[in-house]
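Sequence and fold
=================
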Amino acid sequence: MTKKNTNSREPFLLKPVSKNYLWGGQRLRDDFSKEGSYPLAETWECSTHPDGESLVASGMYTGQTLSSVIQKHPEILGTRMREQSEFPILIKFIDAKENLSVQVHPDDEYARLHEHGQNGKTEMWYVVDAEEDASLIYGLRHDITASKLKESIKTGTLELFLQKVPIRKNDVFFLRPGTIHAIGAGALIVEVQQNSNITYRLYDYDRIDRNGSKRPLHIDRALEVATLNKSNLPTQPLRILRYQPGYASESLCHCAYFYVERVLINTERHRSMVALKTSSLSFEVLVCIEGCGSVFFHEKKDAIHFIKGDSIFLPADCEYRVHGMCQLIKVGV
């Protein structure tokens, strides 16, 4: 009998790609031990996108790109991914010291037709932290025509039409393609999105970048994909914590492209660790947003020790145990 090869079922840490956009700050370095030059705006925690690929940071594939490991071992993605040609998601930390640009993303149909076959961008935000007066832009206050919106951009009055929403730590927001939006100053966010980097900027506050130039806008394409009707105020989803010995979990988001849960681990008063298993259908990714802990595998013979800010890739059909006191964002497809 051939011994089962378990190497491709081993969890591993991910090393993110850092992005120092002009609106970023230093919280990702100070609070989450991230590497990158100031202003550190984003870290792409789990990414195979050509604009920034995550590296494997533990185990036998250390130093290799996530995409190369997937190419060698496609089974780690799970049976649900057999019919898909590319990795489906991108996970980020975002530190908005200043306001992000007002922007919009296309859906799959538009992106594949006009952006060389790329994916559109559906996304969700989990607010890890927020300053007292932090807010975000979510859609429009009332219906508007494309010509009137375009004129407001020229005259600098666009903000009069944008719907601002106060945010608090632990809030969740789901954004469909076409929603005009922006993350506001003072927000620290985990973003889960389709594997896409298509952004159409409508407005950027006339800011100057490090080269002394204004960043480009994409007004015509933005208006082709934007929803110009009044947006309903976003409401927080019904969230129910389900308790098990040593941990609790709640669903944050479930859509056609991904699902997201929050998991709270506390094994301080338990002799046994939390035993978990990924489905054979899908891989999962754990992002630690608070605390620290360990993931044990190979019948507890091997372990990954993680701290706040770390991200761990869990192959499909992977049995593991978690020990520690932490909060995790768990993502799958």
